[in-house]
Amino acid sequence: MLKDExxxxxxxxxxxSYFLEDNxxxxxxxxxxxxxxxEEREVLEKNIFKNKKELNKKVIVVFSENYxxxxxxxRNKYPEEEYxxxxxxxxxxxxxxILNVDLSTRNYxxxxxxxxxxxxxxxxxxxxDIASIYYITDYDIGKTIVPIFRSYALNMDTFSSSEIFHDAxxxxxxxxxxxxxxxxxxxxxxxxxKKQDSLIINEIEKTLIRDFLNY
Length: 215
Fold this sequence. Notes:
With about 220 residues, the chain is of the alpha/beta class. The chain has helices spanning about 35-50, 70-75, 90-100, 100-115, 140-150, 185-195, 200-215; strands spanning about 60-65, 80-85, 130-135, 160, 180.
């Protein structure tokens, strides 16, 4: 049904009906007060912003153009944090600028000029005022930027919804998001790992439909 791109809906023609729309992940399901994606975002918001431990540090929200609306809502609620829209070009330069890696490199170059005869070991350092990084993007951009961020900020707490890997076609590709906190259940991961013939988003949708019908 999903492979044929048919709209799937269930209605009992009363005010308590539940609908599975063509965009199933954004449908309100009977065992959720809200859609799965909305539930994920609320869990993330609580963990990233409301339960923030290092109040003197900033949450860095990195989002792509398609998610400007979500980022705008967060910016209005948490204006003290920092927000960066990532463009689909020269990711490394953008990320260096966000993390102030370029500043670290310039300082190293300036220091090296004083005595060219001394060899100075240098590992680029990032800004020290970051509490965590929240990615709001899809797989196409996420699969590239997350490993780059991790290469500069190895031990940083990072977060994302499951949307960041929905368009991956193999669970092995989730290694790109290693150590990123994503609110998805163990059952969902197990179901995804059993299937290798479609996009991960399709397996998540099938799991939701099965749970919906068996509830």
